[in-house]
Every structure is written in structure tokens, then in C-alpha cells.
Design a protein that fits this description.
Helix content of chain B: over 70%
Distance between the termini of chain B: 26 Å
Oligomer: heterodimer
Order of helices and strands of chain A: EEEHEEHHHEHEEE
CATH class of the domain at 7-86 and 149-220 in chain A: Alpha Beta
Radius of gyration of chain A: 17 Å
Largest sheet of chain B: none
CATH topology of the domain at 7-86 and 149-220 in chain A: Rossmann fold
Distance between the termini of chain A: 34 Å
Order of helices and strands of chain B: HHHHHHHH
Shape of chain B: globular
CATH superfamily of the domain at 7-86 and 149-220 in chain A: P-loop containing nucleotide triphosphate hydrolases
Shape of chain A: globular
Number of domains of chain B: 1
Largest sheet of chain A: 6 strands, mixed
């Protein structure tokens, strides 16, 4: 029997002025799977992800996440990592996470240290985030998205500017999260990094889902 | 309310480390004091008549610097999106920003007031004990509107221009009340009571309106 969809989008349209970033996207996404969202720049991947996170309200269409169309009501069950770090450069990693943890009602440092450890960074690092390498910043950004132990993780280009070894570690970590029961969406241009862990590859073109495949084909392994 | 204090503490920490707002405000206000004092050479009586206007206009323009900075730091690295996807209430963020701006502008006023007194040879002939009340009510009037309109203008292309364009017309009643109340205290010619009541009413109305509307502003694209 097919699993109940954790996310359903129906005829999703998003216009920015005269430009249509999404042109009628309809899809169901099952829980506990890792989806790789692929496509050229401007294909609508980030807009779709931001719409699912509740950051970009659609111009038309319907989004249902975890059984509700009121995305505000379930925002504490979603983790979102954007292409920018969403971190304050002047504060250290633990200071950043301590602040964002409080937004989710999480007190104390235990959870912050736990997620920083999970992304293989040192919680005691006293440097401000602005002095981190790009790779470290991406990891800390992922740690922030994990703070609230979300059921759905929406990640926008988590591997960009990350060295190959670190990217592979992050990819394996995402696989473990999926195995732990999370539904993970990853927007990336590095599909090959997810080949071993992704359950489905979703190809977007010109604001539409062009096709969904279970694996990468030889010509697609960029 | 605890989220307001957490966010305020974070903002104070960021300002302490960067000193972006306070340095720019101080420099700007100092310039105004010095330029005006060289441009005019008023007598003590003339100073009492014009000082209210000078002081508040200087603080208003200087406050705009802090107001823009408040939200600009939330746009760097798109940090505001992290707040928007969290379940934290919008009003906690608004109040934290307004309190933060109130503190920054108050620090500026505390540092600049002695300079104004020296440069313009000021001495109050009216009830000087009312000055702190004018300062508190006036500063809140500037920052509560300023924080709200800065949040609206921050995502526009010409935000440095947009904020004064939105803020100054709305602030006219408050600025008028601040200037007149200060003049009445300095000259002792008339009572500041009406202007203080007007300022208090302005503060209440615009605080409630801002709290009521801020969620829409925060979650707007």
C-alpha cells in the first residue's frame, strides 16, 4: 500500500512580477525518503523549497505539509537550510545556535553541542562564524537546521563550496537522517554526491517537474 | 516576553562587537552640533528658542542610521529567514528591535546632551524635571515608528532613501510635540502639558498599530 504523502503540492504557481518561477507544480512526496532536487539555474528548485518552508507564499495552488495547509502551524517540525548561511557572522557557532535554539523553545547547550558534533565541528570553537571557512559555515548552517530535530529537512545547496571529502560525509549524514525517519529534500547541482543515498531524483525545468527517477542515468552524473 | 529579551541581548552583543550603529550615530550627531554652532551665533535667549528643534532634528537624523542598521544585520546571510521559519512570534522580534534602538538612541542622547548644553549655553528656565519625560516619550516615538518603517523599507532597493520618506511625514506630530515641549521647558514661557499628552497618545497609538501589523510585514516577501 502506498504511504500517505508527507507533502502534497497541487498546481503550484509562483510569479515574481512577470517571471513565473513555478508553473504548475503538482507532486506527492512520501515520508522517510531522501529527494534530490536537480535542474539548471532558474529551474525553480529554490523557489519550490522556499514555498515548502513557508517563506514564499504561492501565487496560486496548494501546499499541504504534514497534513495541513497552514504551514505556520507546523514550522517547528521543519528544518530549513538556505544557500546563505542564516548565521550571524559576528557570533561564534555555539552563540548562534544558542540563540536559534531559544526560538524553538530549546533551553541549555546540550542540543546545540549535540548538533554541532553531528556535523563534525567543535562546539568549543571560539572564532566568530565570519572567520569560518565556507565548508565550516555550511556545516554550522546544517547544524542550525537540525536544532529542532525536524521531521522534514529542506536543504538548499548544502554541498556548495564544500570540499569533496566533507561533502561525502555530509551526504552520508543525510542518508543516516533519512534512515532515522526524516524526510529530506536536497537542492543540489552535485547529483553524484547523493547517488548512493537518494531515494529519488527530481528534475526540474522551467518551473515544472520534468521527471522523477529512482537513480541517475550515465549522462546525468554531473 | 523571554524571546524579546533573548533577541535584545543578541542585538546588544552584535552591536557591542561591531559598533556599527553607535559610531555612525555619534559621528553624525556630533557633526550637526558642530556645524550648527559655527553657522549661528545665538544669544542665550535665542538658543533656548531654537535648541529644541536643533536637538530633536539631530537625534531624528542620527536615529535613522541606527534604524537602517538594525534590519540590515538581519539581511546579511539572510538571517531573518531563520527567524521567519521558526515558531517564534513576530512581536517578540519587533519589541526587541524597538527596545534595542531605544537603548542606542538613549545612549546617543546621553552623550550628546552635555555637548548641546555647552555649545549653545543652555539653561532651563521652565520645569527641568520634565525633560527626562520628554526624552523618554520622544525617543520611543522615534524608534517605534522607525523600527516598523525600517522593516518595511529594508527589502526595497533604495532603503536608505525609503526610510526617511516613510518615517519623517508620519513623525511630524511627534517631532512637533518634542520640539514644543522642549522649548516650553527651556524658555518657561508656556506649559508642556499638552505636548506631553500628545506625545504619550502618539506613542500608545503607534506602538499598538506597529504590534498589530508587524507580523504581516515580517512574513511579506
Amino acid at each position: 500500500m502506498a504511504e500517505t504523502a508527507v507533502i502534497t503540492v497541487a498546481d503550484l504557481v509562483k510569479q515574481f512580477g512577470r517571471f513565473a518561477a513555478l508553473r504548475g507544480v503538482s507532486a506527492n512526496f512520501a515520508p522517510r525518503r531522501l529527494y534530490a532536487l536537480l535542474g539548471d539555474n532558474g529551474a525553480g528548485k529554490t523557489t519550490l523549497l522556499r514555498s515548502l518552508a513557508g517563506l514564499t507564499p504561492p501565487t496560486r495552488g496548494r501546499i499541504s505539509v504534514l497534513g495541513t495547509t497552514n504551514l505556520r502551524s507546523i514550522c517547528s517540525r521543519i528544518g530549513y537550510m538556505a544557500h546563505p548561511s542564516l548565521l550571524y557572522d559576528e557570533m561564534t557557532g555555539i552563540e548562534n545556535l544558542r540563540y536559534f535554539a531559544r526560538l524553538y523553545g530549546i533551553e541549555g547547550d546540550r542540543r546545540c553541542r549535540q548538533v554541532i558534533g553531528a556535523v563534525k565541528l567543535d562546539p568549543a570553537l571560539s572564532r566568530p562564524v565570519g572567520q569560518y571557512s565556507q565548508g565550516m559555515r555550511q556545516r554550522m548552517s546544517l547544524a542550525r537546521a537540525l536544532l529542532n530535530d525536524p521531521e522534514i529537512l529542506l536543504l538548499d545547496e548544502p554541498f556548495s563550496n564544500v570540499d569533496t571529502a566533507s561533502a561525502r560525509e555530509m551526504s552520508a549524514l543525510l542518508g543516516q537522517m533519512r534512515d532515522g525517519g526524516k524526510t529530506v529534500f536536497v537542492v543540489t547541482h552535485q547529483a553524484l554526491l547523493l547517488e548512493a543515498v537518494a531515494d529519488e531524483f527530481i528534475w526540474m525545468e522551467a518551473g515544472r517537474i520534468a521527471r522523477r527517477t529512482a537513480s541517475l542515468e550515465p549522462g546525468e552524473q554531473t | 516576553m523571554s524571546l524579546t529579551w533573548v533577541t535584545l541581548a543578541k542585538d546588544l552583543r552584535l552591536e557591542w562587537r561591531s559598533k556599527d550603529s553607535i559610531n555612525s550615530m555619534l559621528f553624525f550627531a556630533l557633526l550637526v552640533v558642530v556645524i550648527f554652532s559655527f553657522s549661528f551665533d545665538p544669544t542665550a535667549e535665542e538658543s533656548r528658542q531654537i535648541a529644541g528643534g536643533l536637538v530633536w532634528v539631530a537625534f531624528l537624523f542620527a536615529a535613522v542610521v541606527a534604524l537602517n542598521q538594525t534590519w540590515a544585520r538581519e539581511l546579511r546571510n539572510h538571517v531573518l529567514d531563520a527567524y521567519r521559519v521558526s515558531p517564534a512570534p513576530a512581536n517578540a522580534l519587533f519589541l526587541a528591535k524597538a527596545f534595542g534602538n531605544f537603548i542606542f538612541v538613549t545612549v546617543l542622547e546621553l552623550l550628546m546632551t552635555p555637548l548641546f548644553i555647552i555649545f549653545y549655553n543652555l539653561r532651563a528656565l521652565g520645569p527641568a524635571y520634565q525633560l527626562p519625560l520628554v526624552t523618554v516619550l520622544g525617543t520611543w516615538a522615534l524608534v517605534v515608528n522607525g523600527t516598523f518603517f525600517a522593516a518595511i523599507s529594508i527589502r526595497t532597493r533604495s532603503r536608505e532613501i525609503m526610510l526617511p520618506l516613510l518615517l519623517f511625514p508620519v513623525s511630524i506630530p511627534a517631532v512637533l510635540a518634542m520640539v514644543e515641549a522642549t522649548r516650553s521647558i527651556l524658555t518657561g514661557d508656556f506649559s508642556a502639558r499638552f505636548w506631553l499628552v500628545l506625545l504619550a497618545a502618539y506613542d500608545v497609538v503607534f506602538t499598538i498599530a506597529s504590534l498589530f501589523l508587524f507580523e504581516s510585514v515580517l512574513h511579506a516577501e
